[in-house]
Design goal:
Helix content: 40-55%
Number of domains: 3
Number of strands: 21
Number of helices: 12
Distance between the termini: 47 Å
Radius of gyration: 42 Å
Structural class: alpha+beta
Length: about 525
């Protein structure tokens, strides 16, 4: 920054004079800054709105144009505690009988109580030697049933802590990926081991005959299921802390007299996902069209459209901000915080006022929503069907606020006070003529999807998935940058010119003062 000291000889307020002399050029700089800043704010406003339009386009609008989206089913059960059912679109409307004969179980081993040789409390850092392990070895875990088995060895060292041993158990994995979960209960002083998955094929056991840790070592850890073993001296040793083992088991259900088994409690049968929760018999499953699900989907679509169109109308109908330039620092110094906030809000609200592109987008969407389609109902009668057929319409023009005239209401909607008392035509038609509902709304949303897609196509002025001219706005922003640089340079040159002129005047006055002083000195002498 150039530091200038002026007016020392003339006594003039040079700074103020030059400020006034360059005011026209300075105002030009401020004007370009304001235009560029407002354009930046307008870009941000468009980006925010465009994100919502794209979300609507890729979300509910995209899914509802597919007829399969309307094929919603629901299944009820006479015993919801025993079974949970998720209904797929391919499930048939039907009434079925279900028995849950058994649930899937994990292979499980509950260890016997272990004791500390030092009589101290057992903790995660207690070593296996303190539990009675005197030598190192391996425990062999055997997975599977019958002739299909796999084994994996787990190392056991006397110096290992309980935490180390648990980690070794849980990291052991067979060639096919069988593994176990393991924990230690420090209240009951027992090891617990379970197969990581349910089902008979996931069963595991400790191969006591082929574990090099030996029966004595297994007994010390409470992992021996035998009630006795023979020691190295041929003596029979009774085991008081035997482990209890349970094999894994498959789940079994009977649906309409046909038996199904699975290694989990979840069965996928003919479009139904059936989760068995407890054993039970005589359960009735009833599958039918989910009218409430279709209603909720349509209502969600209308709600999302309403929110979007209301925002567009609010932005478009706002007072323009043409007379509101972005405030300079000097202007803000002369205003209160509230005045500054009100001024900036006025700019923010009016950035898209009367915007031609915004008007084009919202009007195109509104026109599609007014479309009619020639469709045939369940009675074979072909009619022109519109949203109004389903009791869906906008409010009265003269009794509705300007920015809410494009909003649709669903007659009978309990959450909408304006129409909650009206006949619920939508629910009635979903129940009585679901094909007509599906065909109309898939046609409507397909048309709207196509129109919005066209508006978002890439052009010379806009990018793909963009309804506004972002490329053109970027060029204009760059143009303002160039103009601002030129205007700022011109202002600096003009200031320098005036400062040079005043500096020359100050120099001349300084010489004149010096001469006068010398003359006065001569006359005085």
């Amino acid at each position: 920054m150039t530091i200038r000291i002026t007016g020392m000889n003339s006594g003039l307020d040079t700074e103020s004079i030059i400020t006034e002399l360059t005011k026209v050029q300075s105002d030009k700089v401020d004007s370009i800054k304001s235009k560029q800043k407002k354009l930046e704010l307008k870009q941000d406003k468009w980006k925010e709105l465009n994100t919502k339009i794209v979300s609507f386009y890729k979300g509910s609008l995209s899914s509802m144009r597919l007829e399969g989206t309307f094929n919603k089913k629901t299944t009820t059960s006479t015993d919801s505690d025993a079974v949970t059912v998720v209904t797929g679109s391919s499930a048939m409307n039907s009434t079925q009988s279900l028995d849950i004969n058994s649930l899937a179980k994990s292979g499980y081993l509950t260890g016997g109580t272990v004791t500390s040789q030092s009589d101290s409390d057992i903790t995660s850092s207690t070593t296996l030697s303190d539990l009675g392990i005197t030598t190192s070895g391996k425990i062999t875990l055997k997975f599977g049933t019958g002739d299909t088995t796999e084994s994996v060895e787990v190392s056991v060292n006397a110096s290992d802590s309980i935490s180390d041993f648990l980690s070794n158990l849980q990291s052991a994995e067979s060639a096919s990926g069988y593994s176990v979960n393991a924990s230690f209960d420090y209240t009951n002083n027992r090891f617990y081991i379970a197969s990581s998955e349910t089902g008979a094929d996931e069963s595991f056991s400790i191969d006591e005959d082929n574990s090099t840790l030996g029966s004595a070592g297994l007994a010390a850890l409470g992992l021996l299921t035998a009630s006795s073993y023979t020691d190295d001296d041929g003596n029979t040793v009774e085991v008081s802390n035997t482990a209890t083992h349970q094999d894994g088991a498959d789940a079994e259900i009977s649906l309409n007299g046909v038996t199904y088994t699975n290694n989990t409690n979840v069965f996928e049968i003919n479009g139904l996902t059936i989760t068995a929760n407890q054993e039970a018999t005589g359960i009735t499953l009833t599958t039918k069209n989910d009218t409430s699900g279709v209603y909720d989907m349509i209502k969600s679509f209308i709600t999302e459209y309403n929110e979007l169109i209301k925002e567009m109308d609010t932005l478009y109908n706002a007072d323009d901000c043409d007379d509101y330039d972005v405030l300079t620092a000097e202007q803000e110094d002369e205003m209160t915080d509230q005045e500054i906030e009100d001024w900036n809000n006025k700019i923010d609200e009016g950035l898209l006022s009367g915007d031609s592109i915004l008007g084009k987008v919202k009007n195109a969407m509104k026109n599609i929503m007014l479309s009619t389609f020639s469709l045939t109902n369940k009675d074979g009668v072909t009619k022109n069907i519109a949203l109004s057929t389903f009791g869906i319409a906008t409010g009265s023009y003269f009794n509705t606020d300007e920015n809410e005239r494009g909003i649709y209401h669903i007659d009978g909607d309990e959450e909408d006070d304006d129409v909650s008392s009206e006949e619920d035509k939508l629910s009635a038609l979903i129940a009585s003529d679901p094909d007509l509902v599906t065909e109309f709304f898939s046609s409507l949303t397909s048309s709207l999807y196509s129109k919005v897609g066209d508006l978002m196509k890439s052009t010379d002025f806009s990018s793909s998935f963009t309804v506004y001219e972002d490329k053109a706005m970027k060029k204009q922003y760059d143009k303002y940058t160039t103009e601002l640089e030129d205007a700022q340079e011109a202002l600096t040159d003009l200031e320098d010119k005036y400062y040079d002129q005043f500096s020359a005047m100050e120099t001349a006055l300084s010489k004149l003062n010096s001469q006068q002083s010398s003359l006065s000195g001569l006359l005085g002498s």
